[in-house]
Amino acid sequence: MQSLTKGKNLIALGSAALLTQGAPALALQQSVDEAVTVEKVDSLTKQILLKEIELERFSLHYTIEVARQGRWKGWRYAAMQEANNSLGLYGGILSTWNRGRVLHHPERLNVKVQETANHLPMIGSIIGASAAAGEFGVNSYHDIRVRMRGYSPGVSIRHIRTIKEDIQNLLEQRQHLVNQASTDSNLDRYDEVFNAEAKVLNDMLEQSLQEFSRYHVGARRLLAFQQSQYLFDVAKYTTSAIGAHFAFLSLYKHKRVWNGRAGVFFAVSGQLTMMAPILSRFVGWEVARMTKRKVDKALPEAEEAKIAELQSDMQALDKLMKEKHAADTAVASITEREAIFDVHEKDFTGAIRREEKKVAAARLTATENVAAGAFVGGSKTAQSIFFLIPGYDHRYNSATKRAGRVTNDMLFTAAVIGLPATSFAILDTLRIQVQGEIQRQKARRRGALPGQIVAARLKALDDMERGLKASM
Length: 472
What we know:
The chain is mostly helical. The chain has one domain. It has helices at about 1-65, 75-100, 110-150, 155-180, 190-250, 255-300, 305-325, 330-390, 400-445, 450-470. Helix 2 packs antiparallel against helix 3 and helix 5 runs antiparallel to helix 6 (about 255-300).
């Protein structure tokens, strides 16, 4: 009996000893499991951020390639149009002088001088139409080259969608781990901060997609606007050149009916001048609307991003880290990642503000262009009336002295009407280019040129990528 009691005591003591030795091992195992789970979540988060960087880098390269505008494109086109308008002004002055000096004796009109006065605007219009056609060709060639480099609309959207799906898969894996951790009493304290960071990661994805959407839609709008504007310019300058040639034929063939035909083409040119600023912007707006609809269908998340939402989720994450995990080394990497989130938020906010400024500037420019087009085009249309009347009114298609005097008076008036409009076009073109160059130089000094901004962002992305890879 005594030996049985002694054996039970030994067993009890042995069990107690085993339990005492197993407690540290169990605690160590729990600590290892906790560290492995946190490390897995951390690794997935870094992979997500690397994919985010890949997405943003593609968007930036996309805007560099697709929305590229030559440094001297504006000046080149403006110089050709200045030549066009200057020849038109010279022809107008010559016509005003030649017809004005013989108002009372139209039979003394110097026909050769008047023919020259009609040829000069014709040559100018041919220069203007050729310049517009040339810029249309340059844009078309550049668009083909960009597509060959893999930045066509369809290929780009598919590439972005692939990256988006990769990020969403990683986010799902991460969330699965976080959900498992929430059921573990040793890990549930991380549940709140992991979910807070997941919201920020989702916000970043949506905003990166929205940024690509803005770049893509903006590039297609700009190309459509410019190409339609060049086509309208080709049309209005071509019709103006034909009108000037017909005015020359009225003198060369001694048939005033050609003045009426010239008036028809001048009227068409004037109406195109008035409507081109409106129609080209409508074309750009319509292309942008259709493009955005396609992007939203392929990347619906791009429509949901909001600056306030990212800022709010970042503040919530920062508050959690400071209040509950300030001294927790297990999730210290989240604090380091907050710097990346902050850079992304500032870039995104800056892009939105720049876009708003561009929209405001575009509206002002559009208003100015519409007003200028109305003035110049209206003057051209008024000129056409003074060609139509003597050209098609049978009373003035004869060799009488009255018919000659009325014709000379009306064509003199047409020349006078054109002088202010042509002078305005010359000065306004120069103003636009000088003003644009001043703004460009100011932006360059601030480092705010599109190329400078993109280069800075690409460098920041490279630095982030190196840091993330080094910590993996």
